[in-house]
């Protein structure tokens, strides 16, 4: 059928068919690539963005195991996983926002403030555990929604919005907490439950880590298998194009910031379990650590590229580096240096991959 | 889409034919600037109508009014003889008018199938779709492949390849395929060959003919006179916010068209 219609078209407009003669006049859009090994690697990484981070993670694990065999022991790996869990959940929310070409500087503030709210509601206001947890989760989600509202309705750049809310939430955090730490022992068991571990041999898996993995599975599913996920990518790739294609980009952005807020609030719950307390003074590193995890995972800060598997690997890279360097006897000050270097390499690599032949 | 349809598509539209899309006296003012001053347009079944005009002649305002991207101050738009009111692009799209914008409106990171169904995704049947809201990737891919094949874009073997890995012409093909797949009444193409080389431009022209031959009338906005004269059945010349006249590639030469467009010669009475 295709052939016949093309034939009739070319007979009716003879001038055109002269450029593409014969039955092979179908538009074939052939491209003749000459693929050098370097280009092939570039294209491979472009098609499989988690491959690079995965290689880094495996290499790091092998290297640290050689430098100190204790690294690859079950107790130490449990520790790495527990250390990574909170950052991974926060980075998951950050991933959604970075996919839309945004950035969230208020991630740490929302998480810490939510944990203080949960603990204060339970301990100071005397709310039962489930009510305190639910209220904290709702308030954390609302903080994310506020960011989304400011980005979509007032149309401020995400960087500025979250810089403002970062300061506001940390300030409110100090007011509510009175700069005091609330001990886990004083809280209802539900709030610290996330820190409880299930022993698997000598490996200890916390409920917090299980929640983290479930959240990753959930977001992975939503991004890959729902229209919403496609719209998140399309909006981040080119918001104007997405709008012309009929996507309500404002709604997509609002949903992304709100979902991120909900994830941060769940991260707050896991944080309480991990620290066995709610402290207003933690979490200052969380902003940059979460962004680091996302970037190491291969997501692009320009939006539309990346995924949650990469972020999980990115968070593990951060955790493995911090822990491995420590076991190798590297001073704390140099750990930051190494991770900073890693970020710069990751971003340079991303730039290179983006320049794939177009 | 039979041979009979194709033959009919090439008859010149007679006065008895009802226009698929008709604009009457469209007016749009921006303050004291008149973008459209009572512009008319008729698009007949099975034709490629090119719209040409100098910069500022009101081409894009006219097209935006037809595709719902702007609401005219005055005038009427009729689709199949029925008056329609488009408040936004979605309204026009629901009525069966698909527009391929110059910027293409594709998401470079998503694959061909995802782009074809962008904003119109298909969900899986049953609870997987209604409760889990799962996408039917398989169905969308096979449909996408069918649409691309129907337009003869045969060698895009991998429907799962991201649009950014495609050449300009291939991207244009994806955008045209999307419009052809979902446009039930009219396809509007805004400068589809502007960014392309000679070879790819010719292939896109072939795509445009294929769309017409499948029975969808096409409005083609272009600055490229050779392209316009190569594919258009009729040529609408827009000048100073109104339709100056309508010519055909047989009735007038390119230089005559340019002369009418720029006001160097008096517009002749409309042909057909």
TrEMBL record, chain A:
Signal peptide: none annotated. One of its GO terms (molecular function) is transmembrane transporter activity. Keywords: Cell membrane, Membrane, Transmembrane, Transmembrane helix. The lineage of its organism: Bacteria, Bacillati, Actinomycetota, Actinomycetes, Micromonosporales. This is Mannose ABC transporter membrane protein /fructose ABC transporter membrane protein /ribose ABC transporter membrane protein. Residues 1-27 have a biased composition (Low complexity). Residues 1-29 are annotated as: Disordered. It is found in: Cell membrane. It is a multi-pass membrane protein. It comes from the Bacteria. GO terms for cellular component: plasma membrane. InterPro entries: ABC_transp_permease. The chain crosses the membrane at residues 47-67, 79-99, 106-125, 131-151, 158-176, 196-223, 252-272, 292-320, 332-353. Its main location: membrane. CDD domains: TM_PBP1_transp_AraH_like.
TrEMBL record, chain B:
The keyword Nucleotide-binding applies. This is Mannose ABC transporter ATP-binding protein /fructose ABC transporter ATP-binding protein /ribose ABC transporter ATP-binding protein. It holds the Pfam family ABC_tran. SMART domains: AAA. Transmembrane segments: none annotated. Residues 21-265 form the ABC transporter domain. GO terms for molecular function: ATP binding; ATP hydrolysis activity. It comes from the Bacteria. The keyword Mitochondrion does not apply. PROSITE patterns: ABC_TRANSPORTER_1 (PS00211), ABC_TRANSPORTER_2 (PS50893). Keywords: ATP-binding, Nucleotide-binding.
């Amino acid at each position: 059928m295709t052939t016949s219609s093309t034939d009739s078209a070319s007979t009716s407009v003879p001038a055109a068919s002269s450029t593409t003669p014969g039955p092979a006049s179908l538009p074939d859009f052939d491209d003749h690539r000459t693929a050098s090994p370097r280009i092939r690697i570039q294209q491979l990484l472009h098609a499989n963005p988690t491959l690079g981070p995965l290689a880094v993670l495996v290499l790091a694990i092998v290297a640290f195991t050689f430098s100190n065999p204790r690294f690859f022991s079950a107790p130490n790996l449990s520790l790495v996983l527990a250390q990574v869990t909170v950052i991974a959940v926060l980075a998951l929310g950050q991933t959604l926002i970075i996919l839309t070409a945004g950035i969230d500087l208020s991630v740490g503030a929302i998480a810490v403030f939510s944990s203080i709210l949960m603990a204060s509601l339970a301990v100071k206001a005397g709310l039962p555990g489930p009510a305190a947890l639910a209220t904290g989760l709702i308030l954390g989600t609302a903080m994310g929604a506020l960011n989304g509202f400011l980005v979509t309705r007032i149309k401020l750049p995400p960087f500025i919005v979250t810089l403002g809310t970062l300061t506001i939430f940390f300030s409110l955090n100090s007011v509510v907490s009175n700069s005091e730490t609330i001990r886990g022992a004083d809280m209802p068991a539900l709030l610290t439950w996330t820190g409880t571990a299930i022993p698997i041999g000598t490996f200890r898996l916390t409920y917090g880590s299980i929640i983290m993995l479930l959240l990753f599975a959930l977001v992975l599913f939503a991004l890959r298998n729902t229209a919403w996920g496609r719209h998140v990518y399309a909006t981040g790739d080119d918001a104007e194009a997405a709008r012309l294609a009929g996507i309500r980009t404002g709604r997509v952005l609002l949903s992304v910031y709100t979902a991120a807020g909900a994830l941060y609030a769940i991260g707050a719950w896991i944080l309480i379990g991990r620290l066995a307390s709610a402290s207003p003074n933690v979490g200052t590193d969380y902003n940059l650590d979460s962004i680091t995890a996302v970037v190491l995972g291969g997501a692009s800060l320009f939006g539309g590229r990346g995924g949650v598997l990469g972020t999980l690997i990115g968070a593990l890279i951060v955790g493995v580096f911090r822990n491995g360097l420590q076991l190798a006897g590297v001073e704390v000050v140099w750990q930051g240096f190494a991770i900073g270097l890693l970020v710069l390499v990751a971003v340079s690599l991303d730039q290179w991959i983006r320049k794939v032949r177009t | 889409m039979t041979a009979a349809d194709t033959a009919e598509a090439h008859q010149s539209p007679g006065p008895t034919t009802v226009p698929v899309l008709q604009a009457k006296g469209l007016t749009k003012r921006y303050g004291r600037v008149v973008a459209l001053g009572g512009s008319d347009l008729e698009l007949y079944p099975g034709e490629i109508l090119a719209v040409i005009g100098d910069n500022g002649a009101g081409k894009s305002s006219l097209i935006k009014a037809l595709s719902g991207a702007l609401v005219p101050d005055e005038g009427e738009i009729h689709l199949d003889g029925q008056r329609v009111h488009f408040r936004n692009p979605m309204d026009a799209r629901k009525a069966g008018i698909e527009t391929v914008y110059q910027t293409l409106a594709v998401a470079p990171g998503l694959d061909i199938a995802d782009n074809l169904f962008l904003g119109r995704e298909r969900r899986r049947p049953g609870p997987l779709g209604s409760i889990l809201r799962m996408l039917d990737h398989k169905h969308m891919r096979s449909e996408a492949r069918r649409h691309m094949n129907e337009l003869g874009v045969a060698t895009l073997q991998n429907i799962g390849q991201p649009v950014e890995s495609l050449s300009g012409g291939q991207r244009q093909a994806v955008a045209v395929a999307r419009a052809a797949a979902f446009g039930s009444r009219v396809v509007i193409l805004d400068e589809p060959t502007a960014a392309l080389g000679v070879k790819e431009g010719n292939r896109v022209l072939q795509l445009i003919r294929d769309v017409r031959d499948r029975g969808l009338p096409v409005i083609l906005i272009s600055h490229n006179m050779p392209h316009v004269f190569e594919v258009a059945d009729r040529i609408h010349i827009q000048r100073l916010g109104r339709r100056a006249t309508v010519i055909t590639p047989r009735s007038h030469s390119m230089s005559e068209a340019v002369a009418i467009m720029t006001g160097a010669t008096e517009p002749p009475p409309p042909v057909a």
